[in-house]
């Protein structure tokens, strides 16, 4: 049974093939390859983009989509997560798309079901479909010429599953990562890092800005996000006329992560990421569901 729990679940060759599919889905409506297939979305954490993106992707491929309203489900009545998963599994879905605040939950669930589990974000651990769409957006922008391109990941890296998945995935495709964050947002890794954004501006091709994950902080770290912004916000003043591709997984803290001017700037591809995300998720759903038979 194939799952997408981390980006390591796909080989580099499979990712290339998935991106080729995604490219065609962007150009013309695909055949209904998942007709009569059932996909369940199970979100224990809030989501704006990821849930709707997966649902739209599934529907575009002709699948039936059911959303389990976790707030009203029996998990609230004391049913364990695994019993919930086993019961959903008994309804015969082809895939369950799971988001949970606890790292490792999608992996645990995958051991209790016989359908594909797609990790839509687990704690600070992984968000594989986001990293795939980020890489796809980068490749598209640079017309596949990404070997040796330099990317700075800026913000609350330590608490970001998006950063975590990108730190696994991007080096596989030859991208060079530098981490930019204040000390308390900096994870321990082997990547080069700096606490000062000014250090990297003349040297990077791509900036990936991240949201401060306030919900994952035990105690408030920045008394005011404005203090964080004065050091790390991606502003027009900082970036000036440099040729830098600007990404953000959303939701953006406007004028904290990226300022109004840069959000409206053509170098900022946040909405392009959202658009590409549907195509990449279509390709991932097709790949794994059809592989599972
Ligand atoms: C992210 C998430 O939920 O992990 N958003 C997303 O899925 N696009 C990032 C975030 O919440 O900051």
What does this structure look like?
It is a single chain. The protein has helices at residues 12-27, 49-60, 81-90, 105-110, 128-141, 161-169, 225-232, 236-239, 260-263, 270-291, and strands spanning 38-43, 64-68, 95-100, 116-122, 150-154, 176-180, 193-194, 206-209, 245-247. The protein is globular. The longest helix is centred in the C-terminal third of the chain and has 22 residues, at 270-291. A five-stranded parallel beta sheet has the order 7-6-5-8-9, covered by helices on one side. A four-stranded parallel beta sheet has the order 2-1-3-4. The mean pLDDT is 94. It has two domains: 7-127 and 274-291, 3-Layer(aba) Sandwich (Rossmann fold), CATH 3.40.50.1370; 129-269, Rossmann fold (3-Layer(aba) Sandwich), CATH 3.40.50. By secondary structure, the protein is an alpha/beta fold. The structure holds N-carbamoyl-L-aspartate (NCD). N-carbamoyl-L-aspartate binds next to α2 and α6.
Brief digest:
The protein has 293 residues and is an alpha/beta fold. The chain is built from ten helices and nine strands. It has two domains: 7-127 and 274-291, Rossmann fold; 129-269, Rossmann fold (3-Layer(aba) Sandwich).
> What is the level 1 CATH name of the largest domain?
Alpha Beta
Shape: globular
From the N-terminal CA to the C-terminal CA, the straight-line distance is 9 Å
What's the SSE pattern? HEHEHEHEHEHEEEHHEHH
Spans of 5+ residues with little confidence (pLDDT < 50)? Answer: none
Topology:
Blueprint: H1 12-27, E1 38-43, H2 49-60, E2 64-68, H3 81-90, E3 95-100, H4 105-110, E4 116-122, H5 128-141, E5 150-154, H6 161-169, E6 176-180, E7 193-194, E8 206-209, H7 225-232, H8 236-239, E9 245-247, H9 260-263, H10 270-291
Parallel strand pairs: 1-2, 1-3, 3-4, 5-6, 5-8, 6-7, 8-9
Helix pairs in contact: 1-10, 2-10, 5-6, 5-10
The structure holds N-carbamoyl-L-aspartate.
